[in-house]
Every structure is written in structure tokens, then in C-alpha cells.
Amino acid sequence: MADTSTKPQAGIKQVLVPDIGDYKGVNVIEVMVKPGDTINVDDTLLTLETDKAAMDVPSPYAGTVKELHVEIGDKVSKDTLILVLETAGDTVPDKAPEPTAQAAAAPSAPSTVATPPKPAEAATSSGGHASPAIRRFARELGVDIARVSGSGTKGRVTKEDVQSFVKTALASGGTGGGLQVADMPTFDFAKYGEIETLPLSRIQKISGANLHRNWVNIPHVTQFDEADITDMEDFRKQLNAEYASQNIKVTPLAFMLKAAVTALQQFPRFNASLSGDNLVLKRYFHIGVAVDTPDGLVVPVLRDVDKKGVVQLAKELSEISAKAREKKITAADMQGGCFTISSLGGIGGTAFTPIINAPEVAILGVSRSTMKPVYQDGQFVPRLMLPLSISYDHRVIDGAQAARFSTYLAQVLSDIRRLAL
Ligand code: CAO
């Protein structure tokens, strides 16, 4: 008589959750089979997740799934019925099922027999959070699981996520193009100390997404320079004294707007946008100005700066920035810009790397002017130096052009008679 404890017979078998240690009520997070599927010994049936680790439950038999008794989201314990299987025959060795466990964050560790789970941080804080079966599936397809964004519970990578990653990679020519980066992990900061959580403002959410898009899509280079604005500053003070009665305050930014347009006229590639394989050169000069508001950064646009004088621009600048800070700025106020100036000069700093405001191709960052000793005609003389930081799209502008642009801009600011040329 055959020994049925070691040699299975063809027929109906119930497959139960094996011994999973002390865990009870464990979450089912993946179900890998469905009724009608033909499976082999050791094929993964489902994946269970405790708060510490994920484990696969392999099939002890080969056969055809007749009934499935669990679904994603169920909570199971040892001996919960998983499925009913019609086994194929007596050629298949019977074996006790052993769940295989793996801390979900270890990207390429092989599956192992269940061991005491690893600390929760390892299972929840890194990209590529996936069950051993999904990791195996990804490995078979040559996919680095860490690069797949998870759509499952707690950001878990599912089989569908891996499949759609492969489809996207194939659609992009399989050349590794596109930004297939892993999602940022989430952290439980409260574990380490007291925290306060503030919602982002609407402006921060919109501008954050735009800044991120521009930062990753545009190859940025930043060119630094300095302009001697000693004479410009004298003239600005003189103007302010003259216009004080009209309540007009001329800040260095009004001169920067004019000087930027003069440089854009001299170097038309900076007053352009990429459109497919074409470069669109603009014959108008609308300049955006980054304005810091309590709700976040907005960039209203001053129109036809080439046709306006410094005093007029100073007036418009204070009007538009007041409008922005009073939250009265409209979408139309922020459209149509050719080039942007981001001035942090009123606050401080020596240089920064501004992010290009696409579809523009360059942006001027202005930091705080300071008196510096400048070597002139055999001696050091005190001069007021203004730091300039020009970020440009390297697909459109070469480094040499950028250096010429910044040198020219610095010359214009150093000798504002050039604004009249
Ligand atoms: N160097 C030294 N002093 C400067 C200066 C500079 N580069 N630029 C401005 N100042 C002075 C001004 O002359 C003014 O001085 P007084 O009060 O003594 O007259 C003071 O700083 C404050 O100027 P302001 O900031 O009110 O005016 P502005 O025209 O220079 O700038 C605006 C207007 C709207 C651009 C500015 O208020 C602002 O919001 N800046 C922040 C922009 C920002 O956040 N950019 C970062 C974007 S991320 O890339």
C-alpha cells in the first residue's frame, strides 16, 4: 500500500496557510493564482505581510486551482484554507509548505525560509518595496525593482507595476531614457521627536511641481559674474530723491530689467523657446519677476520692458509685487514671459542657482551688492559689486555665449549709458 504521507495521489487537495510562526491575522497582499490556473510545486500562491516583513506561500502540490478562498486584504492565520487544488498525479513529491520571507526593502536578497522578521524600518522606508515573488518576477525580466513605483498598499510594487514599468521602458525604446527613478521613501519623523505638519499652499503645490519639472527636464548650467554698480547706485539714489514726492521708489531691480532687455537684444538666443526641433526667437521683451509672497513664489510678467523707462518700470514693479502679495495676481499676469529675473538682493546672499522658468531658456539671479576692493589702475579702490547668476538651458545656449551674455550684462550695469545704445 502506498505511503500517502510522502507520495500524493491524483485528486482534490486543500492547501492551507502553513506555520507562519507566532503571527495571526496576517494581511494577504498579493494573490498570484486564480481558479483554472495550472501550477507547479513551489509556485507562489500568495504573499502575506506582517508589519515587519513579507513572505510568500508556495504551493506544496502541482495541479489545477479549482477554488480560491482568499483575496487581497483578507487576514489569515495558520491553517486558513487558501485554495482547493486538483492534483495532477502521483509523480509530484509531496512536501510541507514553508513560507519564504524577506525584508521588503532588501532589493536583491534571495528568498529564504521564514526567519524572525527584520525591523520595520527596513520593510517600510525604502523604494522597491515588494514581495519575494514580485522581486523574482522582476529579476526574471531584468528589472531593477528599486526603479519601479509601487501602486499597492503602502507603496508596495505589484506584478502590474513591474509589467507597466517594462511596457514604458519598451515604449521609450528600451534605451533607459525617461526618468525611471524610484519614488522618494516616506518616513515616520514622529518616531524621532516632536513634529508639526503644515499643508503646502496651493501656490507651493503648483510652483513646486513646475520647478521640479523644469529642474529635471532642462540641462541647467549657471554662469556667475559681478557687475560694478557704483555709478548706477549713485544715479539710483539721485532718482529716488527726485521721485520721492511721487512716492516712487527705484530699486536696483528696475535697472536690472532694462539691462537684461539690452542684453537679450544683443543675444537673441536668450530671448527664445525650444519648440520641437525649432528655436522660436521672440521679438518682444516681456520679463517675469520672481516675487516672494507669504503663500509662496509667483512670477508676474512686466510687458514690453524695452519700451519703458526705469522709473516707469519701478512703478510697475511695486504695483505688481503688491498685487502678488495681496493674492490678486491672475493667471494672465503670469503668462507670456521671455526671461525671468529672480532678485534676492534685498535679502542677502552672494550667489545662487535659479531654476529656469520654462519655456524660457534663461534666468537671471541677483544677489546682494557689497563694497569690495577692486584693483584698478595700479591700486585697490572700493567699488559696489553686484553678484549675477545666470542659469541657462544648455541645449540652446553654449557656455561661451553665456559668458558673453553675462559679461555684456555686467558692462551695461557698470555703465548705464549703454542702456541708451
Ligand atoms: N543689492 C543690495 N540691495 C538691494 C538689492 C541688491 N541686489 N536689491 C534690492 N536691494 C535693496 C533695495 O534697494 C531696498 O533697499 P531700501 O529699502 O534701503 O531702499 C531693499 O533691498 C528691499 O528691496 P525690495 O526687495 O523691496 O525691492 P526689489 O525691487 O529689489 O525686489 C521683489 C522686489 C518683488 C523682487 C522682491 O521683494 C522679492 O520678492 N524678492 C524675492 C524673489 C525671490 O523669492 N526669488 C527667489 C526665487 S527662487 O529662485
Structure explained in plain terms:
By secondary structure, the chain is an alpha+beta fold. It folds into 3 domains: 12-113, RNA polymerase II/Efflux pump adaptor protein, barrel-sandwich hybrid domain (OB fold (Dihydrolipoamide Acetyltransferase, E2P), Beta Barrel); 125-197, Dihydrolipoamide Transferase, CATH 4.10.320; 220-420, Chloramphenicol acetyltransferase-like domain (Chloramphenicol Acetyltransferase, 2-Layer Sandwich). The chain is built from 8 helices and 21 strands. The protein has helices at residues 120-124, 132-140, 159-171, 202-217, 230-243, 252-266, 310-325, 399-414, and strands spanning 11-16, 26-31, 38-39, 44-49, 54-58, 63-68, 75-76, 81-87, 100-102, 112-113, 220-228, 272-275, 278-281, 287-289, 291-293, 296-298, 301-302, 339-343, 362-366, 370-376, 379-393. Strands 11, 14, 17, 18, 19, 20 and 21 form a 7-stranded mixed beta sheet that branches. Helix 6 (252-266) crosses helix 7 and helix 6 (252-266) crosses helix 8.
Notable traits:
8 helices; OB fold (Dihydrolipoamide Acetyltransferase, E2P); single chain; binds oxidized coenzyme A; 21 strands; Dihydrolipoamide Transferase; 6-stranded antiparallel beta sheet; 421 residues; Chloramphenicol Acetyltransferase; disordered N terminus; alpha+beta
Given the structure, what is the number of helices? 8
Whole-number mean pLDDT:
85
Instruction: Report the end-to-end length measured between terminal Cα atoms.
Output: 108 Å
In N-to-C order, the SSE pattern is: EEEEEEEEEEHHHHEHHEEEEEEHEEEEH
The level of helicity is 10-25%
Task: Please give the domain count.
Answer: 3
Low-confidence stretches: 1-8, 101-123
Helix/strand class: alpha+beta
**CATH C-level label of the largest domain:** Alpha Beta
